[in-house]
Amino acid sequence: MPKLSIVIPAYNEENRLPETIKNYTQFFDKVLPNNYEIIIVPNNCKDHTLEVTKKLAKENKNILYTDNFVNTYIGKGGAIIEGFKIAEGDFIGFVDADKSTAPEDYYDLLANIGNKDGIIASRWLPNSDIKIKQTLIRRIASRAFNLLINTLFQLNIKDTQCGAKIFRKKTIKSIIPDIITKQWAFDTDLLYNMKRKGFKIIEIPTKWDDAEGSQLNVKKASQQVLKSIIKLRLHHSPLRNIIWKKK
Fold this sequence. Notes:
CATH architecture: Alpha-Beta Complex
Shape: globular
CATH class: Alpha Beta
CATH superfamily: Spore Coat Polysaccharide Biosynthesis Protein SpsA, Chain A
Number of helices: 9
């Protein structure tokens, strides 16, 4: 039976992490006993996330963690990449610590990946089940961001930002060196590098709850997103080398 590695980036998640891990371990202990690992990557934490993580790891042998970046800012994407580096599963993915994606729905990704190289949960397909919707401003920002992404990178993906994805090991390990973005444009960077290398991605509807306790400042995030996307687009532009040589 193939092994699944689930990376969970954790920024100040001392309150939400225990219940999420409890739900995931209870489920995967049944469906994939001894064939899964959950890798928690605390990063830039100002609370007791690391202590909570260590306690969870003692309680279940399938829980791993790295404490190399607990006091270092590496961004959500940077934390996921560090988890990817130590993951040993045949399939490697990531999910948010906030319980927006239930373990049953995350397992649905694994069950439906088929012969594809990667699979993405989508909140914006016709059969998606959104139990608790985002605020109007976050939905508008999300759709505007997705339109910008697909215009600039031609990904043809409805929901690039949903925090539940799974990839084949050989796929994700091969593109880690090419990812330059560690924060807001991380998912776009990852998916675009998959496209550039010819990997195949499938997107499926999911069940999703907008989690309480989000620390996102939409106005500030929107500005940072725009900067990150422009930087990423320029990095992959054919004119990049020409512009660089003229400097």
